[in-house]
Fold:
Amino acid sequence: MLPIPEAELSAEDLEDFASRYLGKLLFVFSRIELSLTLNLVVMSVTARMGESEAALSNCYFARKLDFFLRFADVLHQERADFLLACHAWHAAAKSICLKRNRFAHGRWAILPSTQQVVHVSGYPGGHQDEVRYALADLRAIVLEAENVHAQLLELINKQLC
Structure:
């Protein structure tokens, strides 16, 4: 992960760092979605719930999260602690999904005077939401996504036990 520079950055350097964190988030989210989709195919076959591989791989992420809980509830109904961990992971994954979606839809700008990156969502002329991020905030979101992926891999390994 890129270290956060201590010196004040130019607009160009600030944008460069911000774009690296945002790009990293997309890569991490991609890994989460791939790991989840592959696991769903296995869970579907094991649970004999009839969801096809094509249906699972073609649905949007939030739906995949719902399938994950549904399959976990069927396959692991006797493992209360494991199910609690699955539900906690589901909530964390939804949070990352919402952030990723919000980041993908909107406009970005740089405020070099405050060393912030600005995200604006909504349509010009209508209601718009503006959120300002320090580089440390963007880095924390990437670390949160990496943690969500690590937790998913841990759940997958525990599921096999």
